[in-house]
Automatic annotation (TrEMBL):
Gene3D superfamilies: Amino acid/polyamine transporter I
Similarity section: Belongs to the alanine or glycine:cation symporter (AGCS) (TC 2.A.25) family.
Transmembrane segments: 54-74, 219-239, 259-277, 289-309, 315-339, 372-398, 443-465, 486-504, 510-527
UniProt keyword annotation of Transmembrane present: yes
Signal peptide start and end residues: 1-19
Main location: membrane
Topology with respect to the bilayer: Multi-pass membrane protein
UniProt protein name: Alanine/glycine:cation symporter family protein
Subcellular locations according to the entry: Cell membrane
Family annotation (InterPro entries): Na/Ala_symport
Protein species of origin: Mariniflexile soesokkakense
Amino acid sequence: MKKYLLSILALILPFLTFAQDTEIGLDEKVNNAFMPVATWWEGFVLTRIPLGEYHIPLVVLLLVLGATFFTVFFKFPAFTKFRTAINTVRGKYVDIEKHGVDKLYNNDEALAVEDIPNTIRDESAHGEVSHFQALATAVSGTVGLGNIAGVAVAIGLGGPGATFWMIVCGLLGMSTKFVECTLGVKYRDVGPDGTIYGGPMYYLSKGLKEIGFGTFGKILGVLFAVLCVGASFGGGNAFQSNQAAVQISTLLKLEGGSNGVIIGIVLAAIVGVVIIGGIKRIAKITEKIVPFMAGLYILASIVIIFANISDIGFAFQLIFDGAFSPMAGLGGMVGVLIIGFQRAAFSNEAGAGSAAIAHSAVRTKYPASEGIVALLEPFIDTVVICTMTALVIIFFNINGTDAQSVFNYTAEHGSSVILNSNGNTINGVDLTSMAFDSVIPHFSYVLTIAIVLFAFSTMISWSYYGLQSWKYLFGKGKTADMVYKILFLLFVVIGAAATLDAVIKFSDAMILALVFPNMIGLLFLFPKVRQEMKRYMSAISIKKEAIQDGAEDITKHM
């Protein structure tokens, strides 16, 4: 059956390549024909349910309520486990994660072994990457255009107050990431050669089977995998290569219909070199790219914040006033809340389950160790980077004016109107770019490079997510592996060369659709996470007590 499905996909490939032929306008024909399907699918995924006078997207409601429940149930892990997360990423507990605390710190014979480093190497835990590499890979899949253009959209629709609710959603999302990534490690498969296969499709099928819902779990697992493959081709690939190609063409002032194809081929070649090497190579690349691009962006944001330090009070006044005060056309606080939560959910993907695929590959014997590390992801993505972007945009809007006047104007005319000091309406990535340029001349060129890097890192991360889902559906053989990678690289070129808005729109909605099977599984399996958290925290306590009693901290030997 799996070979039959692969054969069908191989037959479809030549037809997909025709979409690049802009001379005969086939891309436009495909786009127009598929648009009704894409519109229906997006509308279905974003189905709104009435709550009083408001209509809230069901997927956003599911994300927010689920995240709130996990936050309360696990006693606010965003705050109580934050320090543990930092220590885990730093490698402070790497010894017990490789061997287990009982062998290393709760057993006299184990402590008497002279060649401890060799013992650790021989008996190391399953996994392919470190905590930091797994975190970098997952962050690279979420940090991107949502942090640059998405924040501008949120402020454009909901005013500065949307920033407050984005931060709240980011803090709540940290709990969801903790739950899904703990389960990702707990229920992963380990191949004979040590290769890791993990993600929601595995904890949905294996975890639900464990509690007596095997058939239901398998259905959810297959559904998630199908949606994830689609999302990897569209929102995680074609859309990214399209935006990168546009930015490169703009930066180099290229003209002509063939430029997209050429840029797409170059991007595909670079992406191909990385993804053929598997998760280890992906992790090595992302652990270098993510700190660089995030650091560059944060540094520039800090420069602008300090340049406008006298307006910092005004900026936060706008954020807090806008979060709780009614604005024209929004229906008051709930309207702003919905916009902020929706954009934050799109940005950090907490609840979609995609990041659990990357985190599953970590080396550890304690699943909760990676769950705790994963809660840093929404913090970096939404609480830090999105907030800095918001401040830069707000400073740009109040430049040369009084902050309260801007707030009054927004309240009077509707927060969908974004103004700079000249009264011009700007939105999207252009607004963010102009905001940076206003303080750092020509920073738009650097921002273009950052956008290309964001797109590249997102593509390589989503190639891994899609591949893992593909293997779940079609098997773990080399043929299935290569078919997926060829398809993925083809979509890099298609995305850069064509303007298939409907196809990208359809695939992008698949990322949000992942929430439904994933969150259902999380609500069934969260008690397992509590057990794993107690086990990991107990191991840390045993290590600390043993060291206090005179045992050697072997972390320094590793």
